Amino acid sequence: MVAVSPLRGQVVRQAHVDDVVSPAYDALTVPQRRKYRDDHPLCYLHVTRSAPDEDDAATVDNATLVRRGRAALERLLAADVFDHESEPALLVYELETDGHRQRGLVAEVAGHEFQRTAKPHEATRPERAALLAEHFSFVRAASSPVACTLERGARLDAALAGVDGMAPLVEHTGADGLTQRVWRILDPQMIDEINASLANDDLYIIDGHHRAAANAQLLANGSDVPVLVAIFAPEALQLRGFHRLLKLPDSMCEQAFIDRVAQRFAVQPHAELREPAAGSVEIFAAGAWHTVQFDERPSSGGALVRLGSLDPSVVEREVIRAIAGRDHDGTDVEYMPDEGGNEAVAEHARTLGRVPILVPAVTVADMVEVAEGGLTMPAKSTYFVPKVRSGLFLRLLDDAFA
After folding, report:
1. If you write DSSP's letter for every residue of 114-137 in order, what string do you get?
2. Domain with CATH 3.90.1530.10 in the chain
3. Would you give the DSSP letter of residue 310?
4. pTM above 0.90?
5. Is the pLDDT reported for residue 95 higher than 90?
6. Which residue from 30, 34, 108, 318 has the highest number of Cβ atoms inside 10 Å of its Cβ?
7. Beta-strand (E) ranges in 174-319?
8. Gap between the Cα atoms of 1 and 117, Å rounded
């Protein structure tokens, strides 16, 4: 059973949502993130810093990043942009965009309990997890919920429907068309119903793997830091592809690359961009688009077989590593989600001089089987939309390090 607790935290004030709540980090390029920070001096991106977004990106170290993040948090606290509701509460969080609506539970889970019950499905980069562990230790705050799902979510959906007809604490539609609503739940009966809906269920992490890995590092070092979570029923989720922008070796031209791909897989060139379908990817190289059809997926064999046959696994193993001889270290491969449309991905790849590889979305069933098998997909294999945002919630963590 998942043991969630009411959040001992704050919610951004309605009047400051535009100022503080940040766009999804992965959906923005580095120049876009830098511009957003310049245009929004109170946005939470100033707190959750990473090296590529800094003016001194080539030399900045983790200690400097977290000091800057703490200073940004102190500016937010001084600006009084968050409410000061003292009583812990469960929160219902709803995101709605493009005709899709997903409603989830925001709460906190003790660090040791989270590590026991929350199953990852994606690999993480140790250096990124180490930065986030340092961030939590020094900044002493969490604002980006680790998004999770359950294997069965009908009972959770029914329990959260108790907010229907209630006025939300926050309701806001941003320039990107995303509407976010938050309700605070203090009623003991509703809290009991929500807790009962989670009985006998484990959590499956759908977004926030590096935050979860950072929490595991802290726990190993003796700090049982609570995890801010947002739990959604699987039926509410939308998955999109996470695309690869590949930097070819200097010794390999695009024609040679696609010729080598054609020696391994069936390749069909065509003039126009197509939506990638399961079992294939779309690659633009040597002036044309190419549908690359992977081998047929085995119909049985368990988690290991399923993992090996997933499209993100095949493209990493067979195309990026075996054919291009590259690694997914952030230099050879850049990742871009399918949020602004495939043409935007292709255009960004052109500006960088990289080869775009459009990868179809995996399924929730794929994710659950891999996680249940104790395995992990390659990094950036899943992208759930709409994504939970930073700056909407704030959990100060001073008590966890006392």
Report:
1. HHHHEE--B---HHHHHHHHHHHH
2. 10-239+385-401
3. S
4. no
5. yes
6. 108
7. 179-185, 203-207, 227-232, 238-240, 242-246, 266-270, 280-285, 288-293
8. 8
